[in-house]
Amino acid sequence: MTAYAVLLSIAALLALLIRGRVAPAILFTVWAAAYYLAGLVSEREWLAGYTNSALITLIVLLLVSLALERSPLLDRFSDLVLRGGPARAILRLSAVTTLFSAALNNTAVVGALLGVVSKQRRVAPSKLLIPLSYAAILGGVTTLVGTSTNLVVNSFVIDAGLPPLKMFQFSLVGIPLALACIAVMVLCSGLLPAHEPAERESRQSYFLEAQITRDSPLAGRSIEQNRLRNLDGLFLLELEREGRLISPVGPDEILEEGDVLVFTGQVEKVQALQQIPGLQVFGTRADALLGSNLVEVVISNESILPNRTLREVDFRSQFDAGVVGIRRGDKRLTGQLGRIPLRVGDALLLAVGPDFAQHRNIDRNFHLLDTGVLRPKLTSHQSTLALSGFALAIAVSAVGIWPLLNCLLVLLAILLATRILSVGEMRRRFPFDLLVTIGSALAIAKALESSGAAELVADAMRSLFDGHGVVGAFVGVYLITVVLTEVITNNAAAALAFPIALSTARAFDVDPMPFVMAIAYGASAGFLIPFGYQTHLMVMSPGRYSTLDFFRIGLPVSLTYSAAVLLLVPVFFPF
């Protein structure tokens, strides 16, 4: 009876994850705590998940990556990579991205190239951004540190008492798999849309401009006193006074004759401005006025903004910027911007104040498409030290001289000592959600096993594939993982599928390694739907993609990827 109750609770967890209203970290923490209170996991098992060695290795790796992602190395490849027609550009971009993603965090690699690819004019960005995201996945599955998913799976492997996965164990299948999928992307490049950049037309439509006339009753009074902050559908964004731009505008700012006010929001509601005495609406110079301080950003998966509105977070005070427009995929959102719940991957057009670049929360909340306001890149000396140190750490751990965690801790200490990385930056970017999610997931996996729920699913798998043997069960485990990763996050998919895979291998009395690798590769096989993988959300709005665009090019890539996994894993990891 307990096993069925746990399965029902897992079904409820999955439904909430798919709905996406509550953060996975909160859901996994609540479920783990509930299983502990129900006596399904002991206090020691519950707390041990948060100190799992593979999980700690992942956290330290992500902290080291904060310095590596500031290396100018990827920028130097951009001009070379993006030459030639779309097919050649896709090939070069995919090859470079795959190579770097094998060692660096996928999100960092895509974030480093996102602005370069979006702003270049040789090839339509929409021809390149989906391949960029796909290639980051393909590079990630070639090494243990290529993607957080592999390290998450390794944490489950260690927790289950199995031998830990090795650095290049994934390469046996991952390299031929990546080559095959890159070839398919090049051959199917015609399926990618060719959206032309629409910056000028979209930006101009966001603004209304009005001027304080001579002898206006508005002059000498503050913004608040003139009730200009709560107009119907419009929002006061900036103020120009004698060629000087005041941005953002505070409520206590005293208006003067000749001031030019710039509004944003529902521009069709210009009547609200025309009815104000002493305010002349003309709206023809707004784009030129604001062109010097417009910045485009994409909301990151670490941001505090998703599922909240601009009003709720007090956007101006948080970032010294006003939101001019919001784009979600191929749609520009209209209406009162302050009331729109934001999502990861939304592209925001910001009119920024002079202190925007100095705000320490920018890099945590946004991926910037305008490189001029990015954090300072590492110098050549710093970049060489950071990259060579990381390469040495990987090499030393790969040959078995010293554990990866030890190597990364030494490298982290060096980065802090040389001030390439700061404690403040580590504090701001610490992956707390990931730590809580995976630590809780390990407790949930224990509950699935101790309650007998995982064994029930394994028995069902054995009955379902009766006559097809262990190979049929292997295919079934892989397909379940692929479906999960398409509808929820990749790490959550690995967490829910792993105990099922392990129990299935035990039910067939075979080596669990093929099933473990099926989980690892399957959890990274998110090509069809953009909402299950963070780099897809990063490129969706800058590329002006629809969900259909991902499905159209993702289907042949996904089929190729799956065929390679199902054919090669049993060869290199026999049952």
From TrEMBL:
It comes from the Bacteria. Keywords: Membrane, Repeat, Transmembrane, Transmembrane helix, Transport. The keyword Cytoplasm does not apply. Pfam families: CitMHS (PF03600), TrkA_C (PF02080). Its main location: membrane. Residues 195-279, 282-368 form the RCK C-terminal domain. The chain crosses the membrane at residues 49-68, 89-114, 134-158, 170-192, 385-418, 430-448, 468-501, 513-533, 553-573. It is found in: Membrane. SUPFAM superfamilies: TrkA C-terminal domain-like. It is a multi-pass membrane protein. This is SLC13 family permease. The lineage of its organism: Bacteria, Pseudomonadati, Pseudomonadota, Betaproteobacteria, Rhodocyclales.
